[in-house]
Design goal:
Rieske Iron-sulfur Protein; seven-stranded antiparallel beta sheet; 32% strand; alpha+beta; 303 residues
Length: 303
């Protein structure tokens, strides 16, 4: 009896010590074989993600108007292109605009809130530990409580920026490449041909910037979606009154950042087009988020 119990215990020991590990190994091999074909596509998908379009297209973007930060030493916060940025005007004789990432590389303080432009310089000071950063290079130029060399990593990302046509524009590239082309300078806006009539600022528009460009590229939708006359600022349709559209799109041959959109529109009443109401619209897009110039030609001339 005693020997029989010992034999059973020994058999159980052999099962746990030898057989169970073998079973686990076989189960692992079986699982690996079953999932082998599903792992490879996932890895291919990871590799393909490197070729997907970046979140925002590269180009010049309007970040604010010049009169929003007109004084020397003034600081402004901006949230644009999915990033928080700090804009400031230097306190030196150049009164230059600089744009940097908003957060200090030290402890993450937002320089736009509590930071200050150092008198007579182009440097902005962090409110936490008084580190100072050069607006042009982003390098930390002063840490008040150390005497040694400032580490090279003490740097905030900067953005190329210009002031033109009363706007401050920044260059954005997802891989931080330098500007591919100069910020837009429209000759028509530099002379006395145009007269300033005011400004209208839209609130936040809940759509991706890319959809604006796609709206123009998809010019075939103009007649089906915009052909019905509606009461302005409403969706109320005016029966039997339509707008006849002939839209087209062209790309610049030598400047890939410029796109031309054309649309000839006229009223259509009771199935008849009225040429006297015709307007030729010529719209030029300078980059994905910079200047869009509208030219409307009709009976009264060009608008």
């Amino acid at each position: 009896m005693y020997i029989s119990i010992i034999d059973k215990l020994y058999s159980l020991f052999l099962i746990y010590w030898y057989i169970l590990p073998i079973i686990f190994i076989l189960l692992y091999i079986s699982r690996w074989i079953r999932t082998k074909n599903t792992i490879r596509p996932i890895r291919r998908g990871v590799d393909r993600s490197q070729t997907y379009p970046r979140q925002y297209p590269c180009g010049w973007y309007r970040i604010c108007d010049s009169d929003e930060i007109a004084k020397r030493g003034q600081i402004k916060h901006a949230f644009i292109l999915g990033r928080e940025m700090v804009i400031f005007r230097s306190d030196d004789e150049h009164s230059q605009i600089y744009v940097l990432d908003a957060f200090c590389v030290h402890m993450g303080a937002n320089l736009a809130f509590g930071g200050r432009v150092m008198p007579g310089t182009n440097c902005i000071q962090c409110p936490f530990h008084l580190w100072e950063f050069n607006g042009e290079t982003g390098h930390c130029t002063k840490i008040p409580y150390i005497d040694g060399k400032i580490p090279e990593k003490g740097k905030i990302q900067t953005y190329s920026c210009v002031e033109r046509h009363g706007m401050i524009m920044i260059w954005y590239h997802p891989l931080n490449e330098p500007p591919h082309y100069d910020a837009i300078c429209i000759d028509e806006l530099l002379g006395d041909r145009f007269e300033y009539r005011g400004v209208h600022r839209y609130p936040n528009i809940h759509m991706h910037l890319q959809e604006f460009a796609e709206n123009a590229a998809d010019f075939q939708h103009f007649q089906p979606l915009h052909g019905q006359m509606c009461i302005p600022w409403t969706q109320l349709q005016v029966p039997r009154i339509f707008i006849h559209h002939q839209a087209s799109l062209e790309f610049s041959n030598d400047k890939p950042y410029i796109v031309y959109f054309y649309d000839t529109a006229m009223l259509k009443l009771f199935e008849k087009n009225y040429e006297s109401t015709k307007i030729d619209a010529s719209i030029t897009f300078y980059g994905p988020g910079g200047i869009t110039l509208f030219r409307l030609d009709g009976k009264v001339g060009r608008i």
